[in-house]
Design brief:
By secondary structure, this protein is mainly beta. The chain is 10% helix and 37% strand. It is elongated and about 60 Å long.
Length: 213
């Protein structure tokens, strides 16, 4: 998995007054858990841009000058009015210790079901997994090229020995449902079809992640 380096400074004072002063100076107070004791540090808000404002998943290298450690973002708090980053919690990574992380799902290819008028429903845009840090994937790649009307792709087809997916095997990730204008054709007719039609990105895909955290 790709990593982003965050350069910051260790915090000696963690009281409300010191935290407020940091925020007024454009710094984000952070805590890294998982080690022998919590590590408090701060970094410029702009340093978190590529980590926070992206659909991709990344690990983090926290660079405090004298030492570096690997971590993943666990929780983030935004200001309710300005949406500025108020606080971030991280969890330290160790080579021999599994970690839980949400991994994004990416769709590729054209669905025959969508070309025939079906509706593409993207049920799980992220999947929670448990793995050793070096086994964390950047994303799940889901191929739509054989997805006909009435078909679906479940977690079972994405299982891998490198990690555990923390959802039941029958959890639907993406499916094509019948629409009023849908045309159901057999395999022979489908083979003669051209490549015109909606792609995954152009299909109707309402967010319905079903209680995802």
């Amino acid at each position: 998995m790709k990593s982003i380096t965050i350069k910051g400074s260790e915090r000696e004072s963690v009281g409300k007054k010191a935290t407020k002063a940091l925020r007024n100076a454009g710094q984000v107070p952070c805590v890294v858990y998982g080690g022998e004791k919590p590590l408090h540090f701060s970094a410029d808000e702009l340093a978190f841009r590529d980590l926070v404002y992206t659909p991709n998943a990344h690990t983090v290298k926290v660079d405090l000058g004298e030492g570096k450690l690997r971590a993943i973002m666990q929780d983030i708090q935004f200001h309710p009015v300005t949406d500025k980053i108020m606080h971030i919690d991280f969890y330290q990574l160790f080579d021999d210790k599994e970690v839980t992380m949400n991994i994004p799902v990416q769709l590729e290819g054209n669905s025959p079901g969508v070309r025939n008028g079906g509706r593409l429903l993207f049920r799980k845009r992220k999947l929670a997994i448990k793995a050793l840090p070096d086994k964390l994937p950047d994303f799940f790649n889901v191929d739509l090229s054989k997805l006909k009307i009435g078909d679906n792709i479940t977690v079972e087809s994405l299982l891998n020995d490198d990690f555990s997916i923390l959802h039941p095997d029958n959890t639907v990730v993406v499916q094509v449902k019948t629409a009023r204008a849908a045309v159901v054709i057999d395999d022979e007719d489908e083979e003669g079809e051209g490549e015109e039609g909606a792609t995954a990105e152009g299909a109707e895909a309402p967010a319905a992640e079903g209680g995802e955290n």
